[in-house]
Amino acid sequence: DHVQINWSTATEKDNRGFEVQKSADGMQWKTLGFVNSQSSHEIANREITYQYSDLHPRQGYNYYRLNQLDLDGTFSYSPIRRIYFESIDTPITVSPNPVSSGRAKIQVTGESHPFVSIYNSLGIEVSKGKAIDGERNLHQLTPGIYLVKATDSHGNIYRKTIIVR
Fold first, then answer.
1. DSSP letters of the chain?
2. 112 conformational bin, left if phi > 0, alpha if psi -120 to 50, beta if neither
3. pLDDT digits 0-9 by tens, 36-56
4. CA atoms of 23 and 58, how far apart (whole Å)
5. pTM of the entire structure?
6. What is the C-alpha separation between 51 and 53, in angstroms, rounded?
7. Of 5, 9, 43, 89, whose CA is between 20 and 30 Å from 132?
8. Spatial separation of the C-alpha atoms in residues 8 and 25, rounded to whole Å
């Protein structure tokens, strides 16, 4: 699982290259890597394409931007792009599912008390709080389809759809 970042330039002049930057919140940035210019530092009046792979995206939203650096030290930032990443091996389980007893075990790998929010089919939050030892009381929910959103202690967000009978 990874995020592939692709971009292109229409023209380049004195371009040193691009820092690929990532953020969890869109405000605090870290540099993932550097991609050198393919223009050999001359004027390039042709489209040049680039790519970079983030091999370790966070579960949930990831923010990316480029910092384009010129040979003289000047730089400029690209617009920010937000990507939602959901791993195929999502470490959240809800059991039983469908829920019929009014209680559900909501487990996130490595977490004993994840913070859980539950949303109805209209996207309205109908329940929230810590899952104590992974358990949540769901007696107040009417039959229907719900989205469970669990947040671990590192801020990673996991989602699972459940049915309440």
1. --EEEEEEES-BSSEEEEEEEEESSSSS-EEEEEEE-SSTTS-B-S-EEEEEEESSPPSEEEEEEEEEEETTS-EEEPPPEEEEE--TT--EEEESSSB-SSEEEEEETTBSS-EEEEE-TTS-EEEEEE-BTTEEE-TTPPSEEEEEEEE-TTS-EEEEEEEE-
2. alpha
3. 999 876 788 899 999 999 988
4. 10
5. 0.57
6. 7
7. 89
8. 25
